[in-house]
Amino acid sequence: MGWLDVFRSEKKGSAQHAKERLQLVVAHRRSGHDDQPAYFPQLQQDLLAVLRKYVQVGDDAVQMEIEREGDLEVLELNITLPDSKH
Amino acid sequence: MAKIIVVTSGKGGVGKTTTAASFATGLAMRGNKTIVIDFDVGLRNLDLIMGCERRVVFDFINVIQGEANLKQAMIRDKRVENLYILAASQTRDKDALALEGVERTLNKLAEDFDYIVCDSPAGIETGAIMAMYFADEALVVTNPEVSSVRDSDRVLGMLSSKTKRAKEGADPVKEHLVVTRYAANRVGKGEMLSLSDINDILGIPLLGVIPESETVLNASNSGMPVALENNADAGHAYLDMVARFLGENRPMRFTEAKKGFLDRLMGR
Ligand SMILES: Nc1ncnc2c1ncn2[C@@H]1O[C@H](COP(=O)(O)OP(=O)(O)OP(=O)(O)O)[C@@H](O)[C@H]1O
Ligand SMILES: [Mg+2]
Description:
The complex is a heterodimer.
Chain A: H1 5-8, H2 14-30, H3 40-51, E1 62-69, E2 72-79
Antiparallel strand pairs in A: 1-2
Chain B: E1 3-8, H1 16-29, E2 34-38, H2 46-49, H3 60-64, H4 70-73, E3 75-76, E4 83-86, H5 99-110, E5 115-119, H6 126-133, E6 137-142, H7 146-159, H8 164-167, E7 174-182, H9 184-188, H10 195-202, E8 206-211, H11 214-221, H12 233-245, H13 261-265
Parallel strand pairs in B: 1-5, 1-6, 2-4, 2-5, 6-7, 7-8
Antiparallel strand pairs in B: 3-4
Helix pairs in contact in B: 1-12
The complex binds adenosine-5'-triphosphate and magnesium ion.
InterPro entries (chain B): CobQ/CobB/MinD/ParA_Nub-bd_dom, MinD, MinD_FleN, P-loop_NTPase, ParA/MinD_ATPase
Family (chain B): Belongs to the ParA family. MinD subfamily.
Binding site for ATP (chain B): 11-18
């Protein structure tokens, strides 16, 4: 490596970081879920994990919806269990 | 039948008015009968940028409220044939704009103009919705900077849900990306989002790139749309953009950093 390369070597600029962050917020808005609380996806994953201790369920077994009426917020949970074959 | 084009951004101060003024000027220079309307009620500035502030007698709101007719309110540009300006009101509050009145006025204008360019106010509220509501096409003005890009994305969401075309299920508003205040040297250093970054994130076709340039400030000081300045890089970029809008194939310019002495010495 020539001595000039010391000057040439580039730090990874902050623009790359900006791009990655923007891609996330844009994807979030475009998914149509941008009025949900930020913890929603994680809560959904946690609920799935708990459920799976007891039953085998698919990835879409837990549906969550938030309803707002005035200053009242209702979290609606819908859990679909697999057909039971006793 | 006129084509209605909104110049919008969400974020303030990114260059909407500068773009609306030069875009309309460029369209008129190419022989299209064009009117540019200031939708920024209470904060009018288009008249200053176009250099006709002392000729404003009646404004858009006066027309909507029936206090003046269009002929009285339209200001004919003295430099470019086919170019007209409709100023916003300084004094009214922004609720003076009503959808029904805007529609009536635009329909009237559509009878004898080729292009109606609507300069949107910043924000994502009534004023901005009013400006985009009847649009056929949109110039989404974006700076290479995080908050501007995010706001542009939100504006894209509004274009596809809050406009007349969206509500009536017609063909969607045609979206064009216009990147302004582009500082190629800072992009080169990785400090600022590049064109392809912005393109990747927003996913709409790029119509033009306007360099960060002091010619814009100089032009606005003298009330001259920068597109009319002969030696202005930003002006040339706007004229290129107009040509592309009209279907010509023009490569993007001003997207590479000018090389300094040290850069050439080190072969970068
Ligand atoms: N390409 C450019 N290079 C340098 N300065 C620019 C450029 N484009 C715009 N500006 C400057 O940025 C400022 C804001 O521009 P402008 O008024 O066009 O933005 P705007 O989006 O209409 O703002 P607002 O949201 O307040 O209506 C002005 O001072 C203008 O001179
Ligand atoms: Mg403006």
